[in-house]
């Protein structure tokens, strides 16, 4: 409930600092009451000792339900306009964890299902916003002026972040999410949603049906994102186009200084020149010059005869000339035969070979780090540089993903998964490696092969 003083303070918070009388403010509030957006506060049980007390108890107002919905909608729109790109680095892992948690609560604690289903909606919004920002950034590089540093930098960062997350680090997490969603579909979407209804606290019967339909739609929508040929796969397939658009934008920026500006900037400059002309005829002349549509006389010649020097263009038959378009380097003259398009199959095969070799190398290094069980951090003393790099990367990721509720953190690479627990509180240990020393809190580590970890996870779910 807000008094007149509170209403004035709220107006000042949103930028309205002009003085307004009580009568005008009360008139505005009365119109909002008549429209159903505000309701007055009337406490008829309050003690009244004077006329002022009787009037004062009416000097408070509150927004109705419809008005609160309108305010929330406007705030949501403003937040969306000012929102920056939000793409958590382990979004797919979070989706898998939510699905697994939903299945566990379905079997053990149905009152928490409503909270899990609300998290499904949050994941959908994150996926939609991230993919929308990715496609929007690609469109900006293609359609807008790439000489605009702010636009180019923002679009480049969004494309690179989307490529790094979806096209580079997705496959392993994608398989796990699909497996979790398959288990959820086997249980039954309708069964899960209906069992979670009591925990949602929805009282009205009509609202209960709406809640059930909304949650079913969200679960089906999440499954559609990760289905074969779904939104995630289409986004990954769009990666080469995004890379091509980014490289093209970089090339256009490089040649912008030597050949004017960008295409969009050229059109805007031409529009300003047309607008500056004093008369319509002059504007049409500028338009014709800019787009090359001046009228022109073409040479004529009698049939089967060559054109002689000084031949009159008004005599003879029309001579047809064939135009051939050839590709050439942008920003520079390249006479002669156009360059041959290189065959990238060999380079692609070499790159795939190098990537496969690197994955095999990292898998071998990770296999060397597998422990006989839970061991202290000092167990890894004496590692060489390659093993140290793999181990430290896994340890950092596991500490970043540390779950205080579960009491441990996990991270995985090709062929192995690392678990980390906190040991004796306040105790510090030092680990010596070939490339230096690590001073850390007392940690306990266990590294297992991925197939062993997957089998253990399946046993826990069963």
Main beta-sheet strand count, sense and barrel state: 4 strands, antiparallel
- Cα distance spanning the termini: 52 Å
How many β strands by DSSP? 10
> Can you tell me the overall shape?
extended
The average pLDDT value, as a whole number, equals 78
Give start-end ranges of low-pLDDT stretches: 301-311, 458-462
Bin the helical content: 55-70%
Please identify the structural class as seen in this structure: alpha+beta
For the largest sheet, list the strands in their spatial order.
5-10-7-6
Regarding quaternary structure, what we see is single chain
Radius of gyration: 34 Å
Question: In percent, how much strand structure appears in the residues?
Answer: 5-15%
How many helices in DSSP terms?
17
Q: SSE order, as H and E?
A: HHEHEHHHHHHHHHHHEEHEHEEEEEH
Give a structural overview.
- By secondary structure, the chain is α+β, with helices and mostly antiparallel strands.
- It has 17 helices and ten strands.
- The strands form four sheets. Strands 5-10-7-6 form a four-stranded antiparallel β-sheet.
- A hairpin with a 2-residue loop joins β6 (409-413) and β7.
- α9 (189-200) crosses α10 (205-226).
């Amino acid at each position: 409930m807000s008094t007149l003083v509170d209403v004035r303070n709220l107006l000042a918070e949103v930028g309205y600092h002009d003085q307004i009388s009580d009568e005008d403010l009360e008139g505005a509030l009365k119109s909002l009451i008549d429209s159903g957006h505000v309701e007055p506060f009337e406490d008829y049980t309050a003690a009244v000792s004077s006329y002022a007390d009787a009037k004062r108890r009416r000097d408070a107002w509150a927004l109705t339900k419809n008005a609160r919905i309108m305010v929330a909608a406007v705030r949501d729109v403003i937040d969306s306009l000012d929102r920056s790109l939000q793409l958590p680095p382990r979004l797919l892992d979070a989706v898998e964890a939510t699905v697994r948690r939903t299945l566990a609560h379905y079997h053990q604690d149905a009152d928490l299902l409503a909270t899990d289903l609300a998290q499904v909606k949050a994941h959908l919004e994150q996926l939609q916003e991230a993919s929308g920002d990715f496609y929007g950034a690609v469109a900006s590089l293609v359609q807008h002026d790439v000489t605009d540093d702010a636009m180019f930098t923002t679009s480049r960062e969004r494309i690179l972040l989307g490529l790094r997350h979806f096209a580079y680090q997705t496959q392993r997490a994608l398989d796990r999410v699909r497996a979790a969603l398959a288990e959820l579909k086997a249980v039954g979407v309708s069964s899960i949603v209906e069992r979670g209804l009591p925990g949602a606290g929805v009282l009205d019967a009509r609202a209960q049906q709406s809640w059930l339909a909304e949650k079913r739609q969200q679960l089906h929508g999440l499954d559609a994102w990760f289905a074969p040929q779904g939104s995630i796969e289409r986004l990954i397939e769009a990666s080469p186009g995004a890379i091509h658009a980014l490289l093209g934008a970089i090339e256009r920026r490089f040649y912008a200084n030597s050949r004017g500006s960008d295409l969009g900037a050229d059109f805007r400059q031409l529009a300003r020149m047309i607008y500056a002309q004093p008369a319509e005829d002059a504007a049409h002349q500028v338009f014709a010059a800019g787009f090359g549509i001046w009228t022109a006389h073409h040479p004529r010649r009698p049939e089967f005869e060559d054109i002689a020097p000084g031949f009159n263009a008004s005599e003879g038959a029309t001579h047809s000339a064939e135009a051939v378009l050839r590709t050439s380097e942008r920003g520079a003259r390249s006479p002669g035969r156009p360059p041959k398009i290189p065959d990238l199959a060999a380079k692609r095969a070499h790159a795939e070979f190098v990537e496969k070799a690197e994955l095999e190398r990292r898998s071998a290094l990770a296999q060397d780090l597998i422990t006989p069980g839970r061991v202290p951090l000092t167990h890894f003393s004496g590692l060489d540089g390659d093993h140290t790099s793999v181990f430290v990367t896994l340890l950092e990721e596991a500490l970043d993903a540390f779950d205080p509720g579960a009491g441990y953190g996990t991270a995985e690479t090709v062929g192995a998964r690392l678990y980390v627990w906190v040991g004796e509180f306040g105790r510090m240990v030092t680990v010596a490696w070939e490339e230096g020393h690590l001073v850390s809190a007392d940690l306990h580590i266990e590294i297992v092969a991925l197939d062993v970890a997957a089998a253990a996870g399946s046993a826990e779910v069963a």
